[in-house]
Fold histidine kinase.
Amino acid sequence: MNGAEQESGRLAALHEYRLFDTPPQEELRAVVRIAAAVAGVPTATLNLIDEHRQVMLTTVGFTGRDCDRDDSMCAIRLGTGQPVNLPDASLDPAYRNNPWVTGELGLIRFYANAPLITPHGHILGTLCVFDTEPHELSAEQAARLEDLAAVIVAFFERRRQTRVTAEFAAITEARKEWAEALLDGIDVAVVAIDTEFQATLYNRAARLSHDPDVDLGAAPVGIAERYQLFEPDGHTLIPDDEVPLMVALAGNGPVTAKEMILRRPKTGPATVRANARALYDAAGAITGAVVALQDVTAEATRKRLIEEARSRLAAANAELLRSNADLTNFAAAVSHDLVSPLAAVGGYLELLADEAGLSVEPATREVERMQNLIESLLSAAAADGAHGGQIPAEAADR
Protein backbone atom coordinates (compact mmCIF):
# COMPACT_ATOMS: atom_id res chain seq x y z
CA MET A 1 0.00 0.00 0.00
CA ASN A 2 1.48 3.37 -1.02
CA GLY A 3 1.48 6.53 1.12
CA ALA A 4 -1.62 8.03 -0.52
CA GLU A 5 -3.64 4.85 -0.02
CA GLN A 6 -2.45 4.57 3.58
CA GLU A 7 -3.45 8.15 4.32
CA SER A 8 -6.80 7.67 2.62
CA GLY A 9 -7.50 4.62 4.78
CA ARG A 10 -6.38 6.46 7.91
CA LEU A 11 -8.72 9.39 7.25
CA ALA A 12 -11.63 7.07 6.48
CA ALA A 13 -11.07 5.29 9.81
CA LEU A 14 -10.83 8.60 11.65
CA HIS A 15 -14.13 9.85 10.26
CA GLU A 16 -15.77 6.45 10.83
CA TYR A 17 -15.34 6.98 14.59
CA ARG A 18 -17.19 10.34 14.35
CA LEU A 19 -15.04 11.79 17.12
CA PHE A 20 -15.66 15.38 16.09
CA ASP A 21 -19.45 15.11 16.34
CA THR A 22 -19.81 15.01 20.12
CA PRO A 23 -17.86 16.55 23.00
CA PRO A 24 -15.45 14.17 24.79
CA GLN A 25 -16.89 12.23 27.70
CA GLU A 26 -15.48 12.35 31.21
CA GLU A 27 -13.78 8.98 30.70
CA LEU A 28 -11.50 10.54 28.08
CA ARG A 29 -10.71 13.50 30.30
CA ALA A 30 -9.79 11.09 33.12
CA VAL A 31 -7.39 9.15 30.88
CA VAL A 32 -5.65 12.36 29.77
CA ARG A 33 -5.31 13.47 33.41
CA ILE A 34 -3.76 10.10 34.26
CA ALA A 35 -1.36 10.49 31.32
CA ALA A 36 -0.10 13.81 32.72
CA ALA A 37 0.29 12.27 36.16
CA VAL A 38 2.17 9.25 34.80
CA ALA A 39 4.59 11.52 32.90
CA GLY A 40 4.98 13.85 35.90
CA VAL A 41 4.10 16.96 33.88
CA PRO A 42 1.30 19.55 34.26
CA THR A 43 -0.01 19.41 30.70
CA ALA A 44 -1.37 16.73 28.36
CA THR A 45 -3.72 16.59 25.37
CA LEU A 46 -5.54 14.15 23.13
CA ASN A 47 -4.87 15.20 19.52
CA LEU A 48 -6.61 14.02 16.36
CA ILE A 49 -5.10 14.70 12.95
CA ASP A 50 -7.44 15.06 9.96
CA GLU A 51 -6.77 16.24 6.39
CA HIS A 52 -5.83 19.82 7.24
CA ARG A 53 -5.72 20.36 10.97
CA GLN A 54 -4.84 19.13 14.43
CA VAL A 55 -7.86 19.00 16.76
CA MET A 56 -7.28 18.92 20.51
CA LEU A 57 -10.18 16.72 21.60
CA THR A 58 -9.54 17.27 25.31
CA THR A 59 -6.71 18.85 27.32
CA VAL A 60 -5.28 19.01 30.85
CA GLY A 61 -3.36 21.98 32.33
CA PHE A 62 -4.00 24.47 29.52
CA THR A 63 -6.69 25.74 27.20
CA GLY A 64 -6.43 23.79 24.01
CA ARG A 65 -6.82 25.16 20.53
CA ASP A 66 -6.80 23.67 17.05
CA CYS A 67 -4.06 24.44 14.59
CA ASP A 68 -3.08 23.72 11.00
CA ARG A 69 -1.77 20.24 10.39
CA ASP A 70 1.49 21.75 9.08
CA ASP A 71 2.01 23.39 12.52
CA SER A 72 1.32 20.20 14.49
CA MET A 73 4.16 18.56 16.43
CA CYS A 74 2.16 15.32 16.59
CA ALA A 75 1.91 15.17 12.77
CA ILE A 76 5.66 15.30 12.21
CA ARG A 77 6.27 11.57 12.78
CA LEU A 78 2.66 10.40 12.66
CA GLY A 79 3.22 8.10 9.67
CA THR A 80 5.86 6.03 11.50
CA GLY A 81 3.39 4.76 14.08
CA GLN A 82 6.16 4.99 16.69
CA PRO A 83 6.02 6.89 20.01
CA VAL A 84 8.06 10.07 20.41
CA ASN A 85 10.08 10.97 23.54
CA LEU A 86 12.03 14.27 23.42
CA PRO A 87 13.58 15.60 26.65
CA ASP A 88 14.09 18.96 24.86
CA ALA A 89 12.33 19.54 21.53
CA SER A 90 14.35 22.68 20.87
CA LEU A 91 17.40 20.50 20.37
CA ASP A 92 15.81 18.21 17.77
CA PRO A 93 16.20 19.40 14.13
CA ALA A 94 12.74 18.07 13.18
CA TYR A 95 11.00 20.06 15.94
CA ARG A 96 13.14 23.11 16.83
CA ASN A 97 11.45 25.37 14.24
CA ASN A 98 7.89 24.26 15.01
CA PRO A 99 5.66 27.17 16.16
CA TRP A 100 4.76 25.24 19.33
CA VAL A 101 8.49 25.32 20.22
CA THR A 102 9.58 28.72 18.94
CA GLY A 103 7.04 30.67 20.97
CA GLU A 104 4.67 31.50 18.12
CA LEU A 105 2.06 29.03 19.46
CA GLY A 106 3.89 27.76 22.58
CA LEU A 107 7.22 27.27 24.34
CA ILE A 108 7.32 23.49 24.55
CA ARG A 109 10.56 21.85 25.60
CA PHE A 110 9.78 18.37 26.89
CA TYR A 111 7.51 16.54 24.44
CA ALA A 112 6.35 12.90 24.26
CA ASN A 113 3.45 11.12 22.60
CA ALA A 114 1.95 7.67 22.05
CA PRO A 115 0.10 7.08 18.75
CA LEU A 116 -3.61 6.14 18.77
CA ILE A 117 -3.60 3.00 16.59
CA THR A 118 -6.86 1.26 15.66
CA PRO A 119 -7.26 -2.56 15.52
CA HIS A 120 -6.78 -2.26 11.75
CA GLY A 121 -3.52 -0.32 12.10
CA HIS A 122 -4.79 3.18 11.27
CA ILE A 123 -3.29 6.08 13.26
CA LEU A 124 -5.94 8.56 14.40
CA GLY A 125 -3.70 10.94 16.32
CA THR A 126 -1.71 10.89 19.57
CA LEU A 127 -1.92 11.03 23.34
CA CYS A 128 0.56 13.80 24.04
CA VAL A 129 2.31 15.01 27.25
CA PHE A 130 4.61 18.05 27.39
CA ASP A 131 6.14 20.78 29.57
CA THR A 132 7.84 24.15 29.13
CA GLU A 133 10.90 22.76 30.89
CA PRO A 134 13.16 19.90 29.73
CA HIS A 135 12.12 16.61 31.29
CA GLU A 136 13.18 12.97 31.29
CA LEU A 137 10.54 10.24 30.60
CA SER A 138 11.57 6.77 31.74
CA ALA A 139 10.98 3.64 29.68
CA GLU A 140 8.37 2.54 32.25
CA GLN A 141 6.53 5.87 31.95
CA ALA A 142 6.67 5.67 28.15
CA ALA A 143 5.20 2.14 28.23
CA ARG A 144 2.33 3.28 30.48
CA LEU A 145 1.66 6.18 28.11
CA GLU A 146 1.27 3.66 25.29
CA ASP A 147 -1.11 1.62 27.48
CA LEU A 148 -3.26 4.69 28.04
CA ALA A 149 -3.30 5.37 24.29
CA ALA A 150 -4.61 1.82 23.78
CA VAL A 151 -7.31 2.46 26.40
CA ILE A 152 -8.42 5.56 24.50
CA VAL A 153 -8.63 3.62 21.22
CA ALA A 154 -10.63 0.90 23.00
CA PHE A 155 -13.00 3.62 24.21
CA PHE A 156 -13.34 4.93 20.66
CA GLU A 157 -13.97 1.40 19.38
CA ARG A 158 -16.58 0.70 22.05
CA ARG A 159 -18.42 3.90 21.24
CA ARG A 160 -18.29 3.10 17.52
CA GLN A 161 -19.62 -0.42 18.11
CA THR A 162 -22.42 0.96 20.27
CA ARG A 163 -23.36 3.41 17.53
CA VAL A 164 -23.18 0.77 14.79
CA THR A 165 -25.27 -1.63 16.87
CA ALA A 166 -27.87 1.08 17.48
CA GLU A 167 -27.93 2.00 13.80
CA PHE A 168 -28.22 -1.65 12.80
CA ALA A 169 -31.02 -2.14 15.32
CA ALA A 170 -32.80 0.90 13.89
CA ILE A 171 -32.38 -0.39 10.34
CA THR A 172 -33.52 -3.86 11.41
CA GLU A 173 -36.55 -2.42 13.15
CA ALA A 174 -37.38 -0.29 10.11
CA ARG A 175 -37.03 -3.33 7.84
CA LYS A 176 -39.17 -5.36 10.22
CA GLU A 177 -41.88 -2.69 10.21
CA TRP A 178 -41.66 -2.48 6.42
CA ALA A 179 -41.90 -6.27 6.09
CA GLU A 180 -44.85 -6.41 8.49
CA ALA A 181 -46.62 -3.64 6.58
CA LEU A 182 -45.94 -5.46 3.31
CA LEU A 183 -47.20 -8.78 4.67
CA ASP A 184 -50.27 -7.11 6.13
CA GLY A 185 -51.00 -5.61 2.74
CA ILE A 186 -51.25 -8.89 0.84
CA ASP A 187 -54.18 -11.30 0.69
CA VAL A 188 -52.02 -14.37 1.34
CA ALA A 189 -52.15 -15.67 4.92
CA VAL A 190 -48.60 -16.06 6.30
CA VAL A 191 -47.82 -17.80 9.59
CA ALA A 192 -44.38 -18.54 11.07
CA ILE A 193 -43.55 -20.50 14.21
CA ASP A 194 -40.41 -21.35 16.15
CA THR A 195 -39.31 -24.76 17.39
CA GLU A 196 -41.43 -24.27 20.52
CA PHE A 197 -44.49 -23.92 18.26
CA GLN A 198 -44.91 -20.26 19.20
CA ALA A 199 -46.14 -17.94 16.47
CA THR A 200 -43.46 -15.45 15.43
CA LEU A 201 -45.42 -14.04 12.48
CA TYR A 202 -49.17 -13.87 11.94
CA ASN A 203 -50.21 -11.37 9.30
CA ARG A 204 -53.57 -9.66 8.71
CA ALA A 205 -54.79 -12.23 6.18
CA ALA A 206 -54.00 -15.01 8.66
CA ARG A 207 -55.87 -13.20 11.42
CA LEU A 208 -58.91 -12.83 9.17
CA SER A 209 -58.74 -16.50 8.19
CA HIS A 210 -58.99 -17.89 11.71
CA ASP A 211 -60.99 -17.44 14.87
CA PRO A 212 -59.68 -14.25 16.52
CA ASP A 213 -59.61 -16.11 19.85
CA VAL A 214 -57.53 -19.01 18.56
CA ASP A 215 -54.76 -20.03 20.97
CA LEU A 216 -51.53 -19.35 19.07
CA GLY A 217 -49.41 -20.80 21.86
CA ALA A 218 -51.22 -24.12 22.23
CA ALA A 219 -49.39 -27.43 21.92
CA PRO A 220 -49.20 -28.93 18.39
CA VAL A 221 -52.15 -31.23 18.99
CA GLY A 222 -55.52 -30.91 17.28
CA ILE A 223 -54.08 -28.32 14.92
CA ALA A 224 -56.52 -28.90 12.08
CA GLU A 225 -59.54 -28.65 14.37
CA ARG A 226 -58.19 -25.51 16.04
CA TYR A 227 -57.48 -23.79 12.73
CA GLN A 228 -60.29 -25.51 10.79
CA LEU A 229 -58.13 -27.20 8.16
CA PHE A 230 -59.78 -29.93 6.08
CA GLU A 231 -58.89 -32.21 3.21
CA PRO A 232 -60.23 -31.17 -0.23
CA ASP A 233 -63.47 -33.06 0.51
CA GLY A 234 -64.26 -30.35 3.05
CA HIS A 235 -65.16 -32.83 5.82
CA THR A 236 -62.00 -34.75 6.79
CA LEU A 237 -59.71 -32.98 9.26
CA ILE A 238 -56.02 -33.02 8.25
CA PRO A 239 -53.88 -35.15 10.64
CA ASP A 240 -51.49 -33.10 12.78
CA ASP A 241 -48.38 -34.61 11.21
CA GLU A 242 -49.69 -33.75 7.72
CA VAL A 243 -50.39 -30.08 8.41
CA PRO A 244 -47.94 -28.28 6.05
CA LEU A 245 -46.36 -26.16 8.80
CA MET A 246 -45.65 -29.26 10.90
CA VAL A 247 -44.26 -31.15 7.92
CA ALA A 248 -41.80 -28.31 7.25
CA LEU A 249 -40.86 -27.94 10.93
CA ALA A 250 -40.08 -31.66 11.11
CA GLY A 251 -37.62 -31.26 8.24
CA ASN A 252 -39.80 -33.21 5.81
CA GLY A 253 -40.54 -30.26 3.54
CA PRO A 254 -40.79 -28.16 1.64
CA VAL A 255 -44.52 -28.53 1.03
CA THR A 256 -45.63 -27.21 -2.34
CA ALA A 257 -49.14 -26.37 -3.57
CA LYS A 258 -51.04 -28.59 -1.14
CA GLU A 259 -54.77 -27.85 -1.50
CA MET A 260 -56.93 -27.74 1.60
CA ILE A 261 -60.29 -26.40 2.70
CA LEU A 262 -60.10 -23.62 5.28
CA ARG A 263 -63.31 -22.80 7.11
CA ARG A 264 -63.10 -19.10 7.85
CA PRO A 265 -65.14 -17.69 10.75
CA LYS A 266 -66.69 -14.79 8.80
CA THR A 267 -66.64 -15.59 5.10
CA GLY A 268 -67.12 -19.35 5.15
CA PRO A 269 -65.07 -22.15 3.57
CA ALA A 270 -62.31 -21.40 1.11
CA THR A 271 -60.04 -23.55 -0.98
CA VAL A 272 -56.43 -22.64 -0.15
CA ARG A 273 -53.10 -23.71 -1.59
CA ALA A 274 -50.38 -24.15 1.06
CA ASN A 275 -46.63 -23.70 0.56
CA ALA A 276 -44.42 -24.31 3.60
CA ARG A 277 -40.71 -24.53 4.31
CA ALA A 278 -38.35 -24.71 7.28
CA LEU A 279 -36.30 -21.77 8.58
CA TYR A 280 -32.61 -22.34 9.34
CA ASP A 281 -29.86 -20.61 11.32
CA ALA A 282 -26.32 -20.01 10.06
CA ALA A 283 -25.26 -23.48 11.19
CA GLY A 284 -28.05 -25.14 9.21
CA ALA A 285 -30.23 -26.08 12.19
CA ILE A 286 -34.00 -25.67 11.89
CA THR A 287 -35.20 -22.68 13.92
CA GLY A 288 -38.83 -22.66 12.81
CA ALA A 289 -41.10 -22.89 9.80
CA VAL A 290 -43.30 -20.62 7.69
CA VAL A 291 -46.41 -21.32 5.64
CA ALA A 292 -48.28 -19.23 3.08
CA LEU A 293 -51.95 -19.97 2.37
CA GLN A 294 -53.22 -18.59 -0.93
CA ASP A 295 -56.97 -18.42 -1.47
CA VAL A 296 -57.69 -20.24 -4.74
CA THR A 297 -61.44 -20.58 -4.22
CA ALA A 298 -62.24 -18.78 -7.49
CA GLU A 299 -59.81 -20.99 -9.38
CA ALA A 300 -61.21 -24.14 -7.74
CA THR A 301 -64.77 -23.01 -8.46
CA ARG A 302 -63.93 -22.37 -12.11
CA LYS A 303 -62.28 -25.80 -12.33
CA ARG A 304 -65.35 -27.46 -10.77
CA LEU A 305 -67.71 -25.60 -13.11
CA ILE A 306 -65.62 -26.64 -16.11
CA GLU A 307 -65.72 -30.29 -15.00
CA GLU A 308 -69.47 -30.08 -14.49
CA ALA A 309 -69.91 -28.47 -17.92
CA ARG A 310 -67.79 -31.18 -19.52
CA SER A 311 -69.88 -33.84 -17.82
CA ARG A 312 -73.09 -32.26 -19.03
CA LEU A 313 -71.60 -31.86 -22.51
CA ALA A 314 -70.64 -35.53 -22.63
CA ALA A 315 -74.19 -36.48 -21.66
CA ALA A 316 -75.60 -34.12 -24.28
CA ASN A 317 -73.33 -35.58 -26.97
CA ALA A 318 -74.37 -39.10 -26.02
CA GLU A 319 -78.02 -38.09 -26.27
CA LEU A 320 -77.32 -36.38 -29.59
CA LEU A 321 -75.65 -39.51 -30.98
CA ARG A 322 -78.66 -41.57 -29.95
CA SER A 323 -81.04 -39.02 -31.47
CA ASN A 324 -79.07 -38.95 -34.72
CA ALA A 325 -79.15 -42.74 -34.92
CA ASP A 326 -82.91 -42.68 -34.35
CA LEU A 327 -83.28 -40.00 -37.01
CA THR A 328 -81.22 -42.00 -39.50
CA ASN A 329 -83.26 -45.13 -38.86
CA PHE A 330 -86.50 -43.15 -39.07
CA ALA A 331 -85.48 -41.51 -42.34
CA ALA A 332 -84.54 -44.84 -43.85
CA ALA A 333 -87.83 -46.41 -42.78
CA VAL A 334 -89.93 -43.48 -43.95
CA SER A 335 -88.13 -43.18 -47.26
CA HIS A 336 -88.63 -46.91 -47.91
CA ASP A 337 -92.31 -46.60 -47.12
CA LEU A 338 -92.57 -43.62 -49.49
CA VAL A 339 -90.42 -44.93 -52.34
CA SER A 340 -92.45 -48.11 -52.86
CA PRO A 341 -95.84 -46.36 -53.36
CA LEU A 342 -94.21 -43.78 -55.61
CA ALA A 343 -92.78 -46.54 -57.78
CA ALA A 344 -96.26 -48.05 -58.06
CA VAL A 345 -97.76 -44.67 -58.95
CA GLY A 346 -95.15 -44.23 -61.66
CA GLY A 347 -95.98 -47.65 -63.06
CA TYR A 348 -99.71 -46.90 -63.17
CA LEU A 349 -99.06 -43.62 -64.94
CA GLU A 350 -97.02 -45.35 -67.64
CA LEU A 351 -99.82 -47.95 -68.02
CA LEU A 352 -102.45 -45.22 -68.48
CA ALA A 353 -100.29 -43.51 -71.09
CA ASP A 354 -99.86 -46.72 -73.04
CA GLU A 355 -103.43 -48.09 -72.83
CA ALA A 356 -105.56 -44.99 -72.84
CA GLY A 357 -103.28 -42.69 -74.73
CA LEU A 358 -103.59 -40.09 -72.02
CA SER A 359 -100.97 -37.37 -71.34
CA VAL A 360 -99.49 -38.08 -67.87
CA GLU A 361 -96.26 -36.06 -68.16
CA PRO A 362 -97.11 -33.48 -65.40
CA ALA A 363 -97.95 -36.27 -62.97
CA THR A 364 -94.76 -38.13 -63.90
CA ARG A 365 -92.66 -35.01 -63.18
CA GLU A 366 -94.23 -34.67 -59.72
CA VAL A 367 -93.46 -38.30 -58.94
CA GLU A 368 -89.80 -37.76 -59.97
CA ARG A 369 -89.63 -34.60 -57.83
CA MET A 370 -90.95 -36.55 -54.86
CA GLN A 371 -88.34 -39.25 -55.42
CA ASN A 372 -85.57 -36.60 -55.51
CA LEU A 373 -86.79 -35.15 -52.19
CA ILE A 374 -86.71 -38.56 -50.57
CA GLU A 375 -83.13 -39.16 -51.82
CA SER A 376 -82.06 -35.76 -50.40
CA LEU A 377 -83.60 -36.68 -47.04
CA LEU A 378 -81.66 -39.95 -47.03
CA SER A 379 -78.38 -38.19 -47.91
CA ALA A 380 -78.84 -35.61 -45.12
CA ALA A 381 -79.60 -38.30 -42.55
CA ALA A 382 -76.51 -40.26 -43.61
CA ALA A 383 -74.29 -37.17 -43.31
CA ASP A 384 -75.52 -36.41 -39.78
CA GLY A 385 -74.94 -39.99 -38.78
CA ALA A 386 -71.37 -39.88 -40.12
CA HIS A 387 -70.09 -36.98 -37.92
CA GLY A 388 -72.49 -37.53 -35.04
CA GLY A 389 -73.44 -33.85 -34.71
CA GLN A 390 -71.38 -33.61 -31.46
CA ILE A 391 -70.59 -30.38 -29.62
CA PRO A 392 -66.77 -29.96 -29.26
CA ALA A 393 -65.41 -30.42 -25.70
CA GLU A 394 -63.54 -27.05 -25.89
CA ALA A 395 -66.90 -25.32 -25.66
CA ALA A 396 -67.07 -26.29 -21.99
CA ASP A 397 -64.01 -24.10 -21.23
CA ARG A 398 -65.62 -20.92 -22.50
Observations:
- The chain has a mean pLDDT of 85.
- The chain has three domains: 3-165, 189-295, 306-397.
- The longest strand covers residues 268-280.
